[in-house]
Structure formats: structure tokens, C-alpha cells
Design a protein that fits this description.
Number of domains of chain C: 2
Strand content of chain A: 25-35%
Radius of gyration of chain C: 17 Å
Largest sheet of chain C: 4 strands, parallel
CATH architecture of chain A: 3-Layer(aba) Sandwich
Oligomer: heterotrimer
Structural class of chain A: alpha/beta
Number of strands of chain C: 8
Radius of gyration of chain A: 16 Å
Number of domains of chain A: 1
Helix content of chain A: 25-40%
Strand order of the largest sheet of chain C: 2-1-3-4
Distance between the termini of chain C: 22 Å
Strand content of chain C: 5-15%
Order of helices and strands of chain C: EHHEHHEHHEHEHHEHHEHEH
Number of strands of chain A: 12
Order of helices and strands of chain A: HEHEHHEHEEEHEEHEEEE
Largest interface: B-C, 60 and 72 residues
Chains: A alpha/beta (194), B alpha/beta (467), C alpha/beta (235)
Largest sheet of chain A: 6 strands, parallel
Distance between the termini of chain A: 10 Å
Chain lengths: 194, 467, 235
């Protein structure tokens, strides 16, 4: 990994860790195994994957399915209906797998962009959130990332989600508690480029 | 720790002073506020040390001053871009117009259940009451807001609405809602709420959110949160209605990035919010989630009257709630005593401006401050709140204030004349000598009575030391 | 060096010893002090109560009484802040605007004046003191140091910092009588913090805060002695 990319991924993961997210830098060959290990640690019964070539190339879905995890892929997975995706019916220990468009090192933020293959709700309907970020998508500052995301011809993405922490609430006695509505665990795999 | 049903302080039929007395007498409230203030203070101190906060604040002030200076133009651009992205924009002159638009829309679409994420603008226009009156069910989904909705209360803090309640009080409220026995365990209470509210997300027809900022450049709505409920509210229901105060516009993404970073620093003492939802129009073709309709309601509600006046800076506010935590008065009585959706220093400035200077709350709220200036120090966009409070006081038009002015007219007549001044000082000193016993007065008549209701008055200086 | 002393209305009524002590200290430091006879009040009570026209009328007497080029020295952070921070707004667009800005520019709180000119008070004392930051001194004048520096310079006096020194004591002018219960609660907290240092005295640059804190302390049984900083420096 180039030294500046290494510094950026270190910055991203350190900032996220301060907000009780976890993460690691992995090489492309080890990404699927790292995803599966994390799913096993969380006890995930079902994964909801973004339909993104990055996940296909890394073999994430196949590895999860091979480990006995039910794998749904967006947008087909959406056919299950909200009650099931929200965990009100069927398995409760679910994991959304996303591929952020960008990652921001300073202060630690993932930039998730909606599209036909990438539902805006994948990470928050699930109990856990695994983000798979190619290292080349790291940027230094939020301003840089947002300007880049919106500086293009035609229509801006209909939804962009900045994610910087697991779902948390301090509404009871100002003490931060995880898993309020969205994912109670956030794990980021920064994947070194091949 | 008390398990009784929490007291509702928002009864504004009693004068503010009485409500402050009631709040001061509540020991549980005092403990909750003390803990909340200390926790915010510690986080804020840490985050200010880790970041170049002073420079960030100066830049944020510059951004907000510039945005408000160009507000009409930026609003027009925002409206144009939201519309181009397929959203429907409506400008509401007041609360009635905003509520009517939303209830009419709900009726036209045959909606029955509305899921809401946290929004001060909808508190301001009393949207929940309007929706319920029209026969629909509306559920707040921010944990704190939901607890308050169940308890029949209004938020006491812009960012942490239920900060005045403790764990046991929350447990009582949640048990009453579900009829289930719940442990006094924070995680269990949060997990319980998660499940209950997922039922709402699964079936709501309309999601209503507030708007932290609209980005004029691309017509994008920013909704900042930490729980994930705002995303669910804006992603799952068929229709998303966003309600925005007209001043909440920034020019472009460079500005937005800056404000998005300083907001959580000031609000929660963290350098990033957990989630920021950036929404540009309804779902695009081929997408499998997101609303089919996006409606943006831009609320005036008295704001445009402030443009170009010496009170304009009140519009710079980004609703972080830092001035509340920083305020010794707010920390003493909590937000509910203010009896307004906006409490604390910014609430004491905004409430009269939005409601009119002749209102009861206007005659009281601006005066509930020692003008100590800690709110200005805490404000991430540098609003001189202590100066605004003085300016708002000068504009109050209630009978009580007019009577006060008559007294000050006598004062100014006497004290603009050196001879009359010296005479009044001499008389006051005689009075003081007569009132004192062993150097102290315990009870004074007339205007001094309120002083001695809480303190003795030293009639000699330096005061006679305690025995 | 010459200076004009603004006595302040509160000192006139409640504690003439404070302005006299201020004069003593300044004279000892070699300042030629005049006490303009036609001065009354800076106008702050009317201003902060939301009556600018009435405040202006009173403030005009201050502009007249303190006309000239000599510095104006005030033994009160709050009155100094009214002149420095409030007058520019109070007189904006008025015929006296220029005079008001000029007066704002040459008005100093007493200990700021000492610090600015490096004046040696030669004060001696004994025991320990804790220092109260009055809000207008701290935040409107942005002055945290000069009061402490003056106390530290007193030979034989030990300065002890209290907890939450940047939190308001709850006086707040008419706030103290409009919301006496809230004001009282804050005053009591301040008194307890001050007493908890074990210092012999609570010292401040503002008589108003001291009057309130001392009065609340006595009412609630907190043992506390207070003095204005000028009285300490005058010995």
C-alpha cells in the first residue's frame, strides 16, 4: 500500500474506533475470509449484500454462503418485505454489506451512495454493518469527498449516507448505548488494491 | 431516584417564575441536569482540545453570516434544484399553512400512519397535534422524542429531548406503553424501543423529518442523526415530507462539509455524527428503496421579518443545543420550564421573535438570563446571544414591560441629573442604615422584597463576617 | 499619569469604601486621580432591562462627566463592560456616537488599568483568598488574568482557585429580583465552591456579584467573607 494510502486508512480506522466501530486493512485475497470471520463473530444468520462488483470480485457473498449464512443481494433481497428485512420476522442477527463510494480519513466517515444495486437502507435495517472499502477510495477530508461526490454532470445521487459510527443513542441519561435503530456494530474492511 | 410519572413542566398557564420554582424543587430533575451538563461539558472540553475549534468557529460564523445575507437567493436556488430533482417544494408562511399542507397531503394519499424523526420545526408548528386531529396516528421514532410522546411531554433540549428524565423514569414510561415488565437496564430499554419502533417503520405510509441544512448548490436535504431512525423514516415510507426552517440553507458542499463537522462537536462533543442523510429528490428510476414522493416544506413562521434587522443573527443558529447546556439558568431548571419548543438562551431569543413581542412568553423568557455570556462562548457559529437577549428585551411590548419602562423613566430622569442622583444616593444610604441590624437586612419592603426573599443584604461594607 | 475614577452607583449606595479604596491604590501607585463630581451611573440597569432610551439618557451624563482624554478607571468589570461593549451599540447613530466610542476606548476596569500600566500597588496582606470571575469581566472584557495578577502581587496572600470559576454566580442585575429563586440557587453554588477552597476570603472585581454571593451565603449558612479587590490592595 502506498504510504499516503496507509496513513489515510490508519486515520479512518482510528477515528472510527473512537466511536466504537472496528476495522482492519486486508489484502484482496484475504477480504472474503475477513468478512466471514467478522460475520461469525457477530453470529450473523443472514447477510444482505449490495450488488456491487467489488464484492463479487472479492468473493464475499460466496464465502459467506459457503459458511452457511443465508445471502440476499439487493435489489432482489428487497422482495422479502420490510418486516423481514427489519428482523421482525425471520432471523434477527442480520448483516448489511455495503461498498462505500468513498472513505474520509479525517474524523472517520464512510460515504455510501445509493443506486439500483445499493439500497439506502441496507446498513440500517440490519443488526450489523460490514463496509468493504477499496483503499483507492480514501480521501483526506470530508469537504474533498463531498465536493467529489456531487461534482458531476447530470443528477446528483438520490441519497448519500455518511456513516461514522454504529447506531447509538444518548437519550437515556446521556450515556451512549449502541444499536438504537440501525446497526449496533460497524466493521470496516479497507481492501488494498490488487 | 423516583419512579413516579414525570412532572410535565410545559404548562404555560402558570408564570415562568412559578415554573422555575417547581423545577428547582425537583431533586431528581436537578440530579439529571447536573449529570447531563457535566457529561456534555467534559465531551466539549475534549473535542475542543483535539480540534482547532476556535478557527472552525470563526469560519462557521463567516459561513452562516454569508448564507443569511444571501438567504432569498439561496432559497430560490434550493427550491429550483429540489424541484429539478423531482421533489415538491412548498413555502409555508406560518404554522397553519405548513400543517395544513401536510394533513391535506396525508388525506389525499389515504395515509394512516406517520413515522417521524426528530425535528424542532415540527415541534414549533405543533405538527403532531394537527396530524392527530386529522385522525391519523403519528409516532416519534427518535428514542428521546418517543419517550416524551408517550409521557405526554415536550422536548426539554434541542438535541437531547429527554435529558431531564432518568433511566427509571424512562422505564416506567416504556412499561406503560407496552404493558411488558422491563429491567432497569439501559441496553434492554434501548433494544425494547428498537423492536417496538420497527413495527412503525415497517408500516408507515409517510415519513416526516426535519432538515438540518438544505444545500442550495444541488438541492440536497441534510438530516443529521445518531440513531438511524431518520434514515429509516426517509428510506422506507412511500412519502417523505421534510420540514425546514427557511434559514437552514448553506450555499455549497464546501460550506456544508464545514457545518456538518462543527455541528456534532458542539451538539454532542464528537467530531462526527453517526449518520448524515443527504437526500436529493425522491428515489431514482431503478432504485428499490427511498420514497416515491419527496415534499419539502419551507417554513417562514416569522423568520423573514428578522432579515436585515439587528436580530438577524438569530437565524444563524444551527440548532446544536450547546447554549442550553452552557447556560447556568437552563442547567438549573431544565428546558421544560421554558414552556417553549426552544428553551435556553436561543429559545429565549427565538420564542418571542417567532411568536410576537406581545405574548406572555415573550415578556418572560428574554429576562430569564443573567446575561453571563456563556452561551456566546459555547455557540459554534458565534451568535452574540447575550446581546440579542438585550435587544429582544427592548422590543417586548407587554403591559408588564410597559410598566417597567415607566419605572425606568423615573430612574432616568433622576439619574441623569447629578444633584438628584446624589440626593437619591443619600436617601438610599439612610434607608440602608435603618434597615440593617448588625450590618445585615433580612427583610426589605417594596422593591427590595424580592432580593431578601432569597438573600440577606449587607448594609455595611465589607459585610460583617459570619460568626 | 492621570485618570478619572468612575465610582459606580452601586459603590455609592452600598459601599463607598470600595471606590475610596480604588482611589487610594491608584494614588499610591502614582496616578493623579480625579473623581468627576457630575458622574451618576453608567446606565446599565436600564440598558440590560430593555429600556435603551432611558439608559441613554443616564449614559449621557457619564459621557459629559468623563469628557476629555484621560483614561477612565472603574472598580467594576460590569460597568467597564457597559461602557466598552454597550456604549457603541447604545449610541450607534446618535449625535454622541463619537464621544461614546472615544470613552469606550479609554475606559478600563481597575485591575486591567493596573496591569496595562504595570503599576505596583505595594500591597501586603496575610492569609488566603479565592478569586471570583465576574461574567462581564471574563467574557465581555475577555479578562481572566488582571484580577488574579493583582492578587498574586499582594505580598503574603495565597491565591486558591475554586471549582467552576467560569460559571455565573446568578446575580445578573434585575435577573436577581425577577427570578430570585434561580438566582439564589446559583449564588449558593458559588458560595459553596468558594467556601470549599478553605480560603479566608472571596475576592472579586465586581461589588454586585459579591453582594449577592455574600447575602446568599449568609442566608444559607455558608461561612464566607468577601471583599472587593480594591479593598485588598488598599490594605
Amino acid at each position: 500500500m502506498a504510504p499516503d494510502t496507509a496513513a489515510l486508512s490508519e486515520g479512518l480506522l482510528a477515528a472510527l474506533a473512537r466511536r466504537r466501530a472496528t476495522g482492519a486493512v486486508v489484502d484482496a485475497a484475504g477480504a472474503a475470509a475477513a468478512a466471514a470471520a467478522r460475520a461469525a463473530e457477530w453470529g450473523v444468520e443472514r447477510a444482505l449484500l449490495a450488488d456491487d462488483p467489488v464484492l463479487g470480485d472479492l468473493g464475499v457473498g460466496g464465502r459467506l454462503a459457503g459458511d452457511g449464512c443465508e445471502v440476499l443481494v439487493w435489489p432482489d433481497g428487497r422482495g422479502r418485505g420490510w418486516r423481514e428485512l427489519l428482523g421482525l420476522e425471520g432471523p434477527e442477527l442480520t448483516m448489511g454489506v455495503t461498498v462505500p463510494r468513498l472513505g474520509v480519513a479525517e474524523r472517520g466517515t464512510l460515504v455510501l451512495e445509493t443506486g439500483p444495486g445499493h439500497g439506502r437502507s441496507i446498513d440500517v435495517v440490519s443488526m450489523y454493518h460490514l463496509a468493504v472499502l477499496p483503499a483507492s477510495r480514501l480521501r483526506a477530508t470530508l469537504a474533498e469527498a463531498l465536493v467529489e461526490t456531487y461534482a458531476r454532470d447530470g443528477r446528483a445521487p438520490s441519497a448519500v449516507s455518511l456513516v461514522s459510527a454504529p447506531s447509538r443513542t444518548s437519550d437515556i441519561e446521556k450515556i451512549s448505548t449502541l444499536g438504537a435503530h440501525g446497526a449496533k456494530g460497524l466493521h470496516v474492511l479497507v481492501v488494498e488494491d490488487r | 431516584m423516583s419512579g413516579r410519572r414525570p412532572v410535565v413542566y410545559s404548562d404555560t398557564t402558570a408564570p415562568l417564575r412559578e415554573r422555575t420554582r417547581e423545577a428547582l424543587a425537583d431533586d431528581a430533575l436537578a440530579a439529571n441536569l447536573r449529570a447531563a451538563g457535566a457529561s456534555w461539558g467534559a465531551a466539549r472540553t475534549r473535542i475542543s482540545a483535539e480540534n482547532p475549534f476556535a478557527e472552525m468557529r470563526a469560519r462557521a460564523r463567516e459561513i452562516r453570516r454569508g448564507d443569511i445575507g444571501d438567504l432569498p437567493e439561496l432559497l430560490a436556488r434550493l427550491e429550483e434544484r429540489v424541484t429539478a430533482a423531482g421533489g415538491v417544494v412548498t413555502r409555508a408562511a406560518d404554522a397553519d399553512a405548513a400543517c395544513r399542507y401536510i394533513t391535506d397531503l396525508a388525506a389525499a394519499r389515504g395515509a394512516t400512519l406517520v413515522a417521524k424523526s426528530k425535528s424542532m420545526a415540527t415541534e414549533e408548528i405543533k405538527l403532531n397535534e394537527a396530524i392527530e386531529e386529522s385522525g391519523l396516528r403519528v409516532v416519534e421514532t427518535d428514542l428521546g422524542e418517543w419517550i416524551l410522546q408517550l409521557a405526554g411531554q415536550h422536548p426539554s433540549h434541542i438535541v437531547a429531548p429527554a435529558v431531564h428524565l432518568n433511566k427509571e423514569q424512562v422505564r416506567q414510561v416504556l412499561m406503560a406503553e407496552s404493558g411488558w415488565e422491563l429491567p432497569t437496564d439501559r441496553e434492554a430499554l434501548v433494544a425494547h424501543a428498537r423492536t417496538r419502533l420497527r413495527e412503525v417503520f415497517a408500516s408507515a405510509d409517510i415519513g416526516i423529518s426535519g432538515v438540518n441544512f438544505g444545500v442550495a448548490e444541488t438541492g440536497t436535504i441534510c438530516v443529521v442523526e445518531n440513531e438511524g431512525n431518520a434514515r429509516l423514516v426517509t428510506a422506507l415510507p412511500r412519502i417523505h415530507v421534510a420540514v425546514m426552517g427557511m434559514e437552514r440553507v448553506v450555499r455549497d458542499w464546501d460550506e456544508a462539509a464545514h457545518i456538518l463537522q462543527i455541528l456534532p462537536m458542539a451538539a454532542i462533543g464528537d467530531d462526527a455524527a453517526g449518520y448524515v442523510n443527504l437526500i436529493t429528490g425522491p428515489r431514482a428510476p431503478g432504485e428499490a428503496d427511498g420514497p416515491e414522493e419527496l415534499h419539502l416544506v419551507i417554513l417562514d413562521g416569522g423568520r423573514s421579518a428578522l432579515l436585515g434587522t439587528d436580530l438577524e443573527e438569530a437565524l444563524d443558529c444551527i440548532r446544536c443545543g450547546a447554549c442550553l447546556y452552557s447556560c447556568p439558568m437552563w442547567r438549573s431548571v431544565g428546558g421544560q420550564a421554558y414552556g417553549s419548543p426552544y428553551s435556553g438562551p436561543i429559545g429565549s431569543v427565538l420564542t418571542p421573535l417567532l411568536e410576537g413581542m406581545e405574548g406572555e412568553r415573550s415578556s418572560e423568557l428574554p429576562f430569564m438570563s443573567s446575561l453571563c455570556g456563556s452561551c456566546h462562548d459555547a455557540c459554534p457559529v458565534g451568535i452574540p446571544l447575550h446581546d440579542l437577549l438585550v435587544r429582544v428585551r427592548a422590543r417586548v411590548t407587554t403591559t408588564a414591560h410597559r410598566r417597567d419602562r415607566a419605572r425606568f423613566r423615573l430612574w432616568s430622569r433622576a439619574w441623569s441629573n447629578p444633584a438628584a442622583y446624589r440626593l437619591s444616593v443619600a436617601m438610599a444610604r439612610i434607608g440602608l442604615r435603618l434597615a440593617g441590624r448588625r450590618g445585615w437586612a433580612r427583610r426589605l419592603p417594596g422593591p427590595g422584597a424580592e432580593w431578601t426573599s432569597q438573600r440577606d443584604l449587607p448594609t455595611r461594607w465589607p459585610p460583617t463576617p459570619p460568626r | 499619569m492621570r485618570a478619572m475614577l468612575m465610582r459606580t452607583c452601586l459603590s455609592d449606595v452600598m459601599a463607598p469604601s470600595v471606590w475610596r479604596a480604588t482611589r487610594t491604590v491608584l494614588e499610591r501607585a502614582g496616578v493623579e486621580v480625579s473623581v468627576p463630581r457630575r458622574q451618576t451611573c453608567c446606565g446599565q440597569p436600564g440598558w440590560s432591562s430593555g429600556h435603551p432610551d432611558q439608559a441613554r439618557r443616564v449614559a449621557r451624563t457619564a459621557l459629559a462627566a468623563f469628557a476629555g482624554d484621560d483614561p477612565v478607571v472603574v472598580p467594576s468589570g460590569s460597568c467597564a463592560a457597559m461602557v466598552r461593549h454597550g456604549y457603541p451599540e447604545l449610541f450607534a447613530g446618535q449625535p454622541e456616537e463619537e464621544a461614546a466610542l472615544a470613552m469606550a476606548g479609554r475606559t478600563r476596569e481597575f485591575t486591567q488599568f493596573l496591569a496595562e500600566h504595570g503599576l505596583d500597588t505595594g500591597a501586603r496582606g496575610s492569609g488566603s483568598a479565592t478569586y471570583h470571575d465576574s461574567c462581564h469581566m471574563l467574557r465581555l472584557l475577555g479578562e481572566r488574568e488582571s484580577g488574579r495578577a493583582a492578587l498574586r502581587a499582594v505580598e503574603g496572600v495565597e491565591l486558591r482557585e475554586m471549582e467552576a470559576t467560569d460559571v455565573c454566580c446568578g446575580f445578573g442585575g434585575t435577573f436577581s429580583v425577577n427570578f430570585p429563586e434561580v438566582s439564589g440557587r446559583l449564588g449558593e453554588e458559588k458560595a459553596r465552591h468558594a467556601a470549599a477552597t478553605g480560603a479566608d476570603e472571596l475576592i472579586a472585581c465586581d461589588l454586585s456579584c459579591l453582594m449577592h454571593i455574600a447575602g446568599r451565603a449568609r442566608r444559607t449558612g455558608v461561612p464566607l467573607r468577601v471583599r472587593h479587590i480594591a479593598e485588598v490592595l488598599a490594605g
